Structure formats: structure tokens, C-alpha cells
Amino acid sequence: MVVLFTCAGQRVDIVTAFARAGATTLAVDVNELAPALYAADRKALVPRIDEPTYVDALRALINDHDVRLVVPLADLDHLLLAQHRDDLGALVLLPGPETIRLCEDKYAAHTFFAEHGIATPETWLPSELPGEIPFPVLVKARRGFGSRHIYRAADRRELDFFLGYTTQESMVQQVCAGEEFSIDVFCDTDGRCLNAIPRTMIESKGGESIKGMTIRDWQLIEHGCRVAEALRIVGPANIQCFRELDGSLPVTDVNPRFGGGFPLPTAAGSRYPELALALAAGERPEPVLGEFREGVVMTRFFSQIVLGESHVGLEPLEEPLLDEA
To answer: What is the helix (H) or strand (E) element at residue 137, kind and residue range?
Structure first.
């Protein structure tokens, strides 16, 4: 089965995991130096997402390579692909546009959670701030990603400063005091959660987990399943939450894609790539909640792909360069 990865970027981990699961991988990006291009069986350059020919270029690749599954690897084209998921000619591993809009707009997500009885931190629009605010709070971009445009304010003076400083449409959110967790979930095409794997957030940089450990915490597993099904997630999602002193699990973010900590649940036996391939083949896998290995620890590091010119353009070098001097 050929799997097309959009916005491939640096997600070598995801592309290679699908290859190990038996897929033929086709990675696309706008940048010829995107590392994941060179980890895939096939690669192609595509127009920018904001160009009108982007979807047509993907559709042509899907037809030419007989693609059965499309896996978006970044948030950038989610809404566009969700809007075209029924006419691309392959299963697009995304929920519908209404879910994508909720996940993209953090204030709308907060309102959704509150209406559905799901714990969420106190959150206000700048024009609706109460007279008494429980500091500290965060000034957060409503549509941010990668922990960009987030500022912590310890008092009203700092809050006023950051609201004036930020260039993004923002909201104000109470800081959670408890321990932070990520829950990597995977749902079928009906929005039914097949598994939810919680992990600790030992360390993160730029919003991406670089150290963590899987834990079989049934409260978190059931919470992740409930949040995913309430949102009608299709495919993968990463749910971020805190465990507060009162036992609540307020959700602070949901990303409807494979999370930055993807290698950890994969190493713990998630088999999410295999589940994705099964969905694309028309199968209906049964839920396997709690089936993964706990206590698996991830610690990440930088790596690289070294390229050289060939008759077909840039290609990975088979041998390290020698110092001819």
C-alpha cells in the first residue's frame, strides 16, 4: 500500500515507522531539504499550501502512485485536506472540518470542553477579563502551534504588557499547577477510540516532547478516549492535559495528528501505523485500550541525512565524505 505524507518536514520517525509496517512511503514537501523526503521510498516537491494548485498536485500524485492513504504530518494543511477528504481518491487520516476548526481555535476548544463536561482551565478573551484573575495566567495565541506566542504573566501589570506585546489574536488562560501528561490516541473512521497511550512529560523543547515515559494509568486512558470521541477524532491525535490537586484532568491542547513524541508510543507497541493501514484497507479493527508496554522511556537527540548531487538531483550519500586534502 502506498502512503502519502504531506508536509513531511523532519518527521523521519513517522515515515520510517510506516515503512516498517509494510507501506510504500511517498513523502512530499515544498522544501527539497526536508529530511523526511530522503527517508521515504518515493518523494516529490509540491506547491505551497496557500497556492491554489496544492490540492490538485496532491490529487495527481495520488492517482499516479495509486495512493491509498494520506497522512498529514503538520497542522498547516489540516483544514484544507479535511475539506477535500472525500474527493482526493484516498483515505485522508483526518477528522472533518468542524473538528479541525475546533482544534485549531483553542478558545473554541475550551468552550466545547466546558459544554461537554470535560475539564478545561479557566479561559477568557482579552475583552472579557473578570475583575479578579487567579494569577499566574498565560497569554496564548488562539491559533498557535509549537508553543509559539505563549507568555506567562504573574500579575496584572505583566498581563497588560503581554496583551499589548503579542502580535497574535490571543486568549488568557489560567496556569495549571499539576503534573502534565500527553495522551496519544488513535481512532477509526467512525470516531471510535482504538487505543490511548499516556506518557509523562519529563522534558520538552519548542512544544515537542524530548523525554518521557509511557504509563498505564487507566484514568488517563479513559480520559483520552472520552476527549477523542467527543471531538470525533479520526486517526491520530495528541491530547495534552494536567492532573490537578482536586483530581481533575483539564485539557489544554488537542492536536489531530501524530504527536512530536510519536517514537515513544510506537516503541511501546501502539501499532498505530498498522492500524492506519488497516483502515485504508477497509478493515474495522477492534479497540485495544490499555494494550501497550508501560515504563518505556524516550530520550531524543539530533540526527541528520547527508545529501549529495546525483543524476536525479539530491540523494543521500552512501558513504561519508572523505577529506581529499
So the answer is: strand 137-141
